[in-house]
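Design request, tokens follow.
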């Protein structure tokens, strides 16, 4: 059972969530910082990541979540499980992802997952949606060449919006994927599929930058 109760939605534009994070230092949070990193943006209670960490001990897993109590809880659970390859940070990724990743060694970030982000249905709240041009630019800057971005949502208009933002960036190629390419599914994904509802998925790849010479 959850240890903490939190609001399902928080306003990412509220002053508290605008505070800048410190750049993450993987040398201090991971025992083997040279391992490839999977970044999960919007990690919620962190269950997907610590299950991944158990399944793939040769990778490091970094979760980013805007609801700070969930970050604290997830790190406590990871510590209880003696997992030294997973860590969670409190950060408003729609604003501060670039700052958070500023000190990552080049090439270490190999996979980014964005799974079932809050759709903020009302038109007046569209500016609160997590995935924006700035976030995609940050991913493009820090993701290793040929690195992967897996996006999935059960909201069709949100899928079209996010997929369009990645296409417009110009630094990603894409492939449609009917099935989840990850070795396990999130609880939200399982719940949606159990109702026989559609899930919209794309796998993007960071293209090689052209040689300026």
């Amino acid at each position: 059972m959850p240890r903490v109760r939190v609001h399902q939605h928080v306003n990412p534009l509220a002053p508290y969530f605008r505070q800048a994070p410190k750049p993450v230092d993987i040398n201090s949070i991971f025992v083997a910082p040279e391992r490839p990193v999977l970044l999960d943006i919007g990690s919620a209670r962190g269950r997907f990541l610590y299950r991944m960490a158990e399944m793939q001990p040769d990778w490091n897993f970094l979760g980013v979540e805007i609801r700070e109590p969930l970050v604290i809880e997830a790190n406590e659970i990871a510590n209880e499980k003696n997992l030294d390859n997973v860590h969670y940070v409190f950060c408003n990724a729609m604003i501060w992802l670039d700052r958070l990743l500023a000190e990552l060694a080049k090439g270490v970030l190999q996979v980014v997952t964005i799974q079932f982000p809050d759709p903020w249905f009302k038109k007046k709240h569209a500016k609160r949606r997590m995935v924006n041009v700035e976030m995609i630019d940050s991913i493009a800057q820090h993701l290793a060449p040929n690195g992967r971005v897996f996006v999935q949502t059960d909201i069709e208009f949100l899928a079209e919006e996010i997929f369009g933002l990645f296409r417009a960036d110009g630094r990603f190629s894409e492939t449609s994927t009917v099935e989840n390419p990850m070795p396990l599914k999130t609880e939200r994904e399982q719940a949606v599929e159990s109702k026989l509802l559609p899930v919209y998925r794309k796998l993007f790849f960071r293209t090689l930058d052209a040689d300026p010479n």
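Comment from the thread starter after seeing the answer: thanks! The mean pLDDT is 92.
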